[in-house]
């Protein structure tokens, strides 16, 4: 089916107000106020060739959306020097389930702020404490800094369950795009290290491979809205350099030799997304290894649809399905 009409209309309205990222690179220094005004209505990334990570980060931060109220939000830095943000949906005399969330952004952009709306909505919808992790970004901190930070943060959450008011036996890892990659990697590391116990993983349009030539969706959706194949190459070059790392499961979790014993998993992909095929393939290898897995490709949607939920009913419905799968896992 074609891109959903609601999504197409939204994207068309955004295109009318887009500016070139190359123009943006010049304006950031000379006219920062003008740049901020122009960016508020921009929701896609074109060819990033020749654009610095700093400029793309500036853009991404500028289009982040406010989220709903939650009971409390706390920023802190854990002992490994990793910033985290803790969202509590309500007061509770009983320990709540916990979700450790890793933001998307191609391992190069993104922050606690860019995914603040997602984490607030997730905490409220599921009734869980959400801990968002501000892992180190490439190229300043290339692979494997991000998975190291994410695993360390997940261990810290489990080890400090009493302080956080969470139930360590109901610990979930989740993430979108590059964050979905990191959630899958953390689940694999936790299995190998035998800690912490993770009961569920939720991977939202995850990047699980480092090989753009392997999956047909990279060609089929090469010029898709939000994320293009060229942009994905830009992200990977900053994250892993010129090395494909296709044999390293810390970078490409689908390349692991053994998938048995991993926690149950929900995988969401989008029809018009270069990452679609590898996400569905990861669901297949998990299922073949005996892992309980549910996977859904959302017809008519594009990469990044979770962040469009505040504006688009079709995206909100899709994200609600993901939240419901997590809620079911932590309340079973």
Structure, described:
By secondary structure, the chain is of the alpha/beta class. The chain has one domain (73-331): Alpha/Beta hydrolase fold, catalytic domain (Rossmann fold), CATH 3.40.50.1820. It has helices at residues 5-16, 21-30, 32-39, 53-62, 116-126, 145-159, 161-164, 178-193, 217-220, 229-240, 276-288, 313-331; strands spanning 72-77, 83-88, 96-102, 129-133, 166-176, 200-204, 265-272, 293-302. The protein has an eight-stranded mixed sheet with strand order 1-2-4-3-5-6-7-8, sandwiched between helices. The model is unreliable at 16-22 and 31-44 (pLDDT under 50).
Name the beta content range.
15-25%
Number of domains: 1
> What is the global morphology?
globular
Quickly count the helices. Answer: 12
Rg from Cα: 19 Å
User: Which strands sit side by side, in order, in the main sheet?
Assistant: 1-2-4-3-5-6-7-8
Query: What is the mean pLDDT?
Result: 90
**CATH homologous superfamily name?**
Alpha/Beta hydrolase fold, catalytic domain
What is the top-level CATH class? Alpha Beta
Largest sheet: 8 strands, mixed
What class, by secondary structure content?
A: alpha/beta
- Give the termini separation: 35 Å
* Oligomeric organization of the protein chains: single chain
Please tell me the CATH architecture by its name.
3-Layer(aba) Sandwich
Q: Percent helix among the residues?
A: 40-55%
Number of strands: 8
Low-confidence stretches: 16-22, 31-44
């Amino acid at each position: 089916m074609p891109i959903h009409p609601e999504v197409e209309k939204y994207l068309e309205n955004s295109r009318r107000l887009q500016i070139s990222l190359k123009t943006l690179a010049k304006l950031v220094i000379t006219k920062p106020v003008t740049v901020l005004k122009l960016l508020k209505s921009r929701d896609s990334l074109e060819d990033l060739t020749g654009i610095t990570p700093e400029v793309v980060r500036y853009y991404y931060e500028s289009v982040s959306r406010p989220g709903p109220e939650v009971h409390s939000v706390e920023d802190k830095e854990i002992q490994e020097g990793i910033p985290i943000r803790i969202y509590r949906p309500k007061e509770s005399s009983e320990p709540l389930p916990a979700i450790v969330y890793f933001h998307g952004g191609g391992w190069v952009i993104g922050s606690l702020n860019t995914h603040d709306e997602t984490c607030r909505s997730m905490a409220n919808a599921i009734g869980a404490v959400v801990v968002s992790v501000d892992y180190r970004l490439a190229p300043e901190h290339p692979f494997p800094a991000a998975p190291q930070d994410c695993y360390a943060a997940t261990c810290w959450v489990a080890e400090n369950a009493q302080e956080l008011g969470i139930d360590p036996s109901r610990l979930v890892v989740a993430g979108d795009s590059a964050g979905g990659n990191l959630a899958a990697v953390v689940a694999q590391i936790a299995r190998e290290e035998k800690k912490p116990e993770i009961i569920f993983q939720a991977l939202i349009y995850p990047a699980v491979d480092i090989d753009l030539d392997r999956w047909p969706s990279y060609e089929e959706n090469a010029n898709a809205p939000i994320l293009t194949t060229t942009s994905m190459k830009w992200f990977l070059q900053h994250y892993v350099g010129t090395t494909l790392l296709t044999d390293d499961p810390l970078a490409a979790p689908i390349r692991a030799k053994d998938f048995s014993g991993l926690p149950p998993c929900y995988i969401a992909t989008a029809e018009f997304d270069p990452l679609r095929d590898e996400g569905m393939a990861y669901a297949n290898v998990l299922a073949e290894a005996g892992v309980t897995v549910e996977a859904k490709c959302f017809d008519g949607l594009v990469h990044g649809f979770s962040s469009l939920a505040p504006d688009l009913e079709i995206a909100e419905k899709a994200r609600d399905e993901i939240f419901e799968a997590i809620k079911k896992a932590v309340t079973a």
